[in-house]
Amino acid sequence: MKRMFITALSLMLLAAAALPAAAHEFLVVPQFWQTYTAGQSLPISTHSAHVFMKSEELENPANVRVSYRDQTIPLAADTAFKTYTGEVVLSGGSAALLHGHRLGEVWSKTPKGVVKGDRSTLKGVVWSRKYEKFCKTLLPVDGNTKGWDTVVGDALEIVPLTNPLTLRPGDVLKVRILHNGTPVAPETVTATYDGFTDIPNAYAFVTEPYGEGEAAIKISAPGLWMVRVQYIVDEKGSNYDQHAMRAVLMFPVR
For the whole prediction, is pTM greater than 0.70? Predict the structure, then answer.
C-alpha cells in the first residue's frame, strides 16, 4: 500500500511537470488568519507567481484591478516582495469575495522564447496571444459562508459546486469552469496550497474535467488553497490570434 501511494504521488508530480509551460498566476492573497470578522481591516496582496504563493514580479500597475463588494481597492507597490498591497474592511452577513483582474496583455512565441509584444515589435513571431487573468478569493466572515457560489461573470471563471469554506482535509471540492457563462472543459484543472513545495509550477493535485465542465479536487492538507485553470480560444484581435485566459479560485482550509 505504501509503495502504491508513493508511485501515485510520483505520477502526480510528473503530470504537473508535463503541463504546458508555465506562466505566472495572478493571485489575490489575504492575510491568513484563523478567523475573519466583520469590521476587521484585512491586509491583501497581489502575487504573480510560479512558486505558490511567492510573488516573482510586479505586474504592470495599469493592468491590475482588485475589488471588494464592487469597490476598487487602492494598491501600493511593494518592490521588496514584488507585490501590490492594500486593505479591505470586511463586511458581515456573507462570505467575503475578493475579485482580481489582470487585464489582457499580448505575448508572442519567438525564436527567443515567449516574450511580451506582437508582430509589430518582434521578429520571427510564431503566434501571438492575449493573456488575461482572473482571481476570486473567498473567506468566511463571522463564520458566515453565504455567497460561496457567487458567479461574477469573468470571461473565464471557476464556480464551486460544493462550499469550499466548509472543507476539511480529506474532503472533495467540486467545481464548474465557465467561459462567458458557458461550461467548458479545459485539458487540466490543477490545485495546490501555500507551502506545498518550492518547485515552480508543481501542484498538489491534477485532474481532468468531465461532463459539463466539472472537476473534483481532493483536499489533502490545511492551508490557503488555490484551484487553477487555463483556457485558450481562437480570437482575432488587432495584434493577436488567440485569447488565453487563466482563472484562480482561492479559499482557506482549516
Answer: yes
